[in-house]
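dumping this here before i forget
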Amino acid sequence: MRKRINASFESNQPKLGQIQIADIKIDLESRDQIPKILLGLQHFYSDEELLEKAYNILEDEIILQRSVQSNNGRPGMTIWQVLVIGVLRLNNNWDYDHLETMVNSHKEIRLMLGLGIWEEHDKISRKTLMNNFSMISDKAFDQISELVVKAGHKMLDVEDEELKTRVDSFVMESNVHHPTDSNLLMDSVRKIFHVIWFLENVLNAQIIDQSKNELKVIKRLFDKIRKMRHSTSKVEAMKKKRKDAIKEAHQVFLTKVQGLFYKIDNAFENSSMDSLHMPSRAKKIMEMSSYLDYAAYQMDLISRRVFEGETIPQHEKIYSIFEYYTQWIVKGKAKTPVELGLKVAVVDDQYGFILGHQVMHKPLKSSGRL
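structure:
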């Protein structure tokens, strides 16, 4: 078995600066979590039985289920490297940009991946990281996590002891800006124009006249309403005047966005371009359609709030068009009374091992447009 695993992720010709994974020296005095993760991976590597079980899980995921041939295609990542980057990304909650930087710059991480620390051509691109990591399902990582917990209990010689568990929850925060209906409408409009420019470029044809100028006009109207505030004057006439000005600014903004919808509808209704049915372009059109739906939904919320004076219920609001699952979570904390993200429940035992987790989803909002 060891020969099979060695053949998978170790080169027959050692690279400059490369050492055996079991011989990597890790800073035991560091208070950062990366050395702790690397120590766990080093133990993982030294336990042949544990490594073989994990290897079989990943091999089944990558090679059998996804029809990837282990001895064919362009150079990518070995199964051991996929395991290492998966553990690092999930434990540190890194995005792919940060993961790429750490994989190519952090000495101990590169050694754990079986790479030479001085070899420039051994750098792993962001696209390679994404393509390989995306092949592993949540179920596979859950199975590997279960193996690790059993190995930990075995190491502590507590396999036969009764486990005492507890459940706690925390908020996995989304990377979103402060969500207002006008902000989200502007996000949708901006993404719509990105798709329009992509299609105009690949088709070498104009879909909307002066599209860049059109976006500038909409952005100027958005900036105007973003800066407007309700009057704090005690004079009712002044308060009413400011309220009417806010309504008028919103009306002009919404009318301009609605005009954009009409231009897009007319452009595609009058188009006879068969090339739009190519998979990559059809995908972009579907993407634009989803942003049009988001924009229409936000326009409805703005109309209800500004013109009808309605207070929009929380369950009808959307907090991000990119991370659509984001929820407005109130946990009553003094410093952070409100958090944007998803609640995650975690079950651990008296030895500190995480036994399971569950994302605490709420039903997603829906409307006639979404």
